[in-house]
């Protein structure tokens, strides 16, 4: 079974110490079973440091240090495990982040999550969101019968139509899948956002600026790409029209939140922030999708 990815995917590589928002800070880093066993059998100068840093549990995880930093993150923002043992010694989550996967009727797809600043930069600067290319193969698996890829392609054609203003495009997507701003009032949306769990508490107040009627900025190209990404990530895994509709609703909700809180100079950072707080919290995603389900 082939793996497909947006064309920009092949341009991605971790920027390591140049990253302002390291994924090795503030996140609990779980260790998969195979890697945990590998660490137990590890020898060499750095083996003791790795074993001593693991907190037992189900699953086990690295014990974060001061400032919630991974204990293997050095003063330059580089990974000591990679430096001492090579990338093959990384646990799954460290090796895969910020990638995500889902299965479609034509095969598996892989994407990059916008919580990563380099991934966010690529996503918001590329018009190749509709072009998917093969990037590998995995063993065959049972695939969903619902063709979400065809539904997505229809929406991507709207997003790529420069004869439509961005507002017209968004309206057509909303009407096509009967997901309207009135389905969730601004008051209810702000109440919901206020009840979520946040990695950084100050964002709770910032997200209260949500408005479904907020005006679009002058340059809407980045918004087209952001909405394409949200549709890719949250609507494509659908196994039915109802699930696809729910995913489109979540995508449009994230897009309106982005426009509500972003200024002219920080749209990319706000997109990354939304991804980090909503997409990377299963509880937050499910809470919003529940309110948007019909």
Layout of secondary structure:
Elements: E1 2-6, H1 33-40, H2 47-52, E2 54-55, E3 61-62, H3 80-85, H4 92-96, E4 99-104, E5 107-112, H5 117-125, E6 132-137, H6 148-160, H7 166-176, H8 186-195, H9 202-206, H10 221-234, H11 241-261, H12 267-279, H13 282-292
Parallel strand pairs: 1-5
Antiparallel strand pairs: 1-6, 2-3, 4-5
Summed up, the domain count is 2
Number of helices: 13
Number of strands: 6
Low-confidence stretches: none
How much helicity do the residues have?
A: 40-55%
Biggest beta-sheet profile: 4 strands, mixed
Explain the overall architecture.
The protein is built from 13 helices and six strands. With 294 residues, it is an alpha+beta fold. The protein folds into two domains: 24-96, no CATH class; 148-292, no CATH class. The strands form two sheets. The chain has a four-stranded mixed beta sheet. A two-stranded antiparallel sheet has the order 2-3. The relative contact order is 0.13.
What can be said about this structure in brief?
Helix content is 45%, strand content 9%. The protein is α+β, with helices and mostly antiparallel strands.
List keywords for this structure.
294 residues; alpha+beta; four-stranded mixed β-sheet; two-stranded antiparallel ribbon; 13 helices; 6 strands; 45% helix
């Amino acid at each position: 079974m082939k793996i497909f990815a947006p064309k920009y995917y092949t341009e991605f590589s971790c920027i390591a110490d140049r990253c302002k928002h390291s994924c090795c800070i503030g996140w609990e880093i779980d260790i998969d079973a195979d890697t945990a066993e590998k660490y137990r059998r590890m020898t060499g100068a750095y083996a003791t440091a790795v074993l001593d840093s693991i907190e037992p549990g189900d699953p086990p995880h690295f014990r974060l240090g001061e400032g919630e930093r991974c204990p293997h993150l050095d003063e330059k923002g580089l990974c000591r495990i990679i430096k001492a043992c090579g990338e093959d010694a990384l646990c799954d989550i460290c090796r895969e982040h910020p990638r995500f996967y889902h299965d479609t009727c034509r095969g598996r797809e892989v994407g990059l999550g916008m919580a990563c600043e380099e991934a966010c930069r690529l996503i918001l600067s590329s018009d190749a969101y509709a072009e998917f290319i093969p990037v590998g193969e995995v063993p065959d698996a049972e695939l969903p019968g619902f063709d979400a890829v065809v539904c997505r392609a229809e929406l991507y054609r709207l997003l790529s139509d420069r004869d439509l203003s961005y507002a017209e495009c968004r309206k057509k997507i909303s009407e096509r899948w009967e997901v309207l701003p009135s389905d969730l009032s601004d008051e209810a949306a702000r109440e919901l956002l206020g009840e979520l769990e946040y990695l950084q508490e100050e964002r709770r107040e910032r997200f209260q600026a949500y408005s479904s009627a907020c005006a679009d900025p002058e340059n809407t190209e980045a918004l087209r790409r952001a909405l394409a990404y949200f549709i890719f990530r949250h609507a494509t895994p659908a196994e039915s029209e109802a699930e696809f509709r729910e995913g489109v609703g979540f995508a449009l909700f994230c897009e309106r939140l982005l426009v509500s809180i972003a200024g002219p100079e920080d749209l990319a950072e706000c997109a990354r922030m939304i991804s980090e707080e909503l997409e990377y919290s299963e509880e937050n995603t499910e809470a919003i999708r529940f309110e948007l389900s019909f």
